[in-house]
Amino acid sequence: MLKGKHIILGITGSIAAYKAAYLIRGLVKRGAEVQVVITPAGKEFITPLTLATLSSHPVISEFFSNRDGTWNSHVDLGLWADAMLIAPATASTIGKMANGIADNMLVTTYLSCKAPVFVAPAMDLDMFAHPTTRRNLERLRSFGNRIIEPAEGELASHLVGKGRMEEPDRIIEVLSDFFETRKDLAGKKVLITAGPTYERLDPVRFIGNYSSGKMGFALAEVCAERGAEVTLVAGPVALGISNPAIRRIDVESAEEMYQAAREAFPGSDAAILCAAVADYRPEQVAERKIKREEKGEMTLRLVPNQDIAASLGAMKREGQILVGFALETDDGVSHAESKLRRKNLDFIVLNSLRDPGAGFRCDTNKIAILDNAGTRTSFPLKSKREVASDIVDRLVTCLR
Ligand code: PMT
């Protein structure tokens, strides 16, 4: 799948830079053309001569050549690429990319790049776990960049933990999968709900939940990449979308989500309801900030919200596919089966807060898919993107 693809390989100053040699060999062997862009620190770890020999292209590092004044155009490079891969990506380069600090050829090329960008971080475990790095990676994700999570293992510091750059073979597999993507949702319209809902109490407070939107946004990205026209109804989340095939409608409350979903559903071939919708809202919304001094003890009266899934289930026409989620803490399977029937769903995705790394906020999830034929397919813990692919595989089967 990589035959003829133009790949910019960005290399930064990490001990994992030696793996770039294997990466180039693997990419070239699969027919890709590789152009290396390296940071000054990267050159301390691996020589341009090695990289130029393996890639059959001079390595680019500076904005211009001191020898003859030749200008290296980061804009042309950005346009030439079918993909940009930054491997290894240090905390420093990730920070510069997240904040637009274009003080070297690699980051300027990144900023000019129209093609999809893959980032394979490599650093010590504490650096990787630091909130700054987490925030910067989250920002890159929100720009639509794909993060190839580092593996766990022994690090250059001899500490053991998460931070080792993923192995070259696996990185090449991720790129191949990307280019191989089947367009098996071409011509289909998919409605997706994602994120939490906020139910207003007064101008400064609301009832909400911990949903980050990551699972629903991953579903939207995967559906769009596989050819669908996607309507994404999103609750309040801090995520971005880059695929032009995704029409995003931002809402705040369950009622707004209900209205937007009901409007989009009749024109859709399928709906995936991943949002964590508040089941209740305050009966009354105060116009002014509620003051403790005035209220003293307070009882909140809540009224039920519309059940979006059940309402779409009742509207569903022949051929439309309706997929729900069940987020459970106890008796997951029986609760999920009951929701599947009650809401007239075609299948339901069960995730449990009891499974480490599953559910709200994290980048991974562990699911089981239950359908009306009574089958249950369990999957191991995977990235939310991979989970989204598994769900979309099942959706495609149902649409057939
Ligand atoms: O956003 P992330 O941080 O990535 O987290 C992902 C997730 C945990 C939110 C997601 O994987 C998930 O489980 N979403 C559904 C959460 C939920 O509200 O489940 P539920 O069991 O309460 O609802 C069952 C189904 O009915 C869901 O499809 C839900 O969208 C839908 N529902 C619920 C209530 C309501 N009023 N209207 C609905 O449509």
TrEMBL record:
Segments for region (Phosphopantothenate--cysteine ligase): 190-400
A biological process term (GO) from this entry: pantothenate catabolic process
Record's keyword terms, sorted: Decarboxylase, Flavoprotein, FMN, Ligase, Lyase, Magnesium, Metal-binding, Multifunctional enzyme
Protein name per UniProt: Coenzyme A biosynthesis bifunctional protein CoaBC
InterPro entries reported in the protein's UniProt record: CoaB-like_sf, CoaBC, DNA/pantothenate-metab_flavo_C, Flavin_trans-like, Flavoprotein
Annotated region described as Phosphopantothenoylcysteine decarboxylase, given as residue ranges: 1-189
Cofactor(s), by name: FMN; Mg(2+)
EC number(s) from the headed UniProt entry: 4.1.1.36, 6.3.2.5
Transmembrane helix is among the record's keywords: no
One Pfam family this sequence matches: DFP
Family in the record: In the N-terminal section; belongs to the HFCD (homo-oligomeric flavin containing Cys decarboxylase) superfamily. In the C-terminal section; belongs to the PPC synthetase family.
Co-factor: note: Binds 1 FMN per subunit.
Function (record text): Catalyzes two sequential steps in the biosynthesis of coenzyme A. In the first step cysteine is conjugated to 4'-phosphopantothenate to form 4-phosphopantothenoylcysteine. In the second step the latter compound is decarboxylated to form 4'-phosphopantotheine.
GO CC entries: phosphopantothenoylcysteine decarboxylase complex
Reactions catalysed: (R)-4'-phosphopantothenate + L-cysteine + CTP = N-[(R)-4-phosphopantothenoyl]-L-cysteine + CMP + diphosphate + H(+); N-[(R)-4-phosphopantothenoyl]-L-cysteine + H(+) = (R)-4'-phosphopantetheine + CO2
NCBIfam families reported in the protein's UniProt record: coaBC_dfp
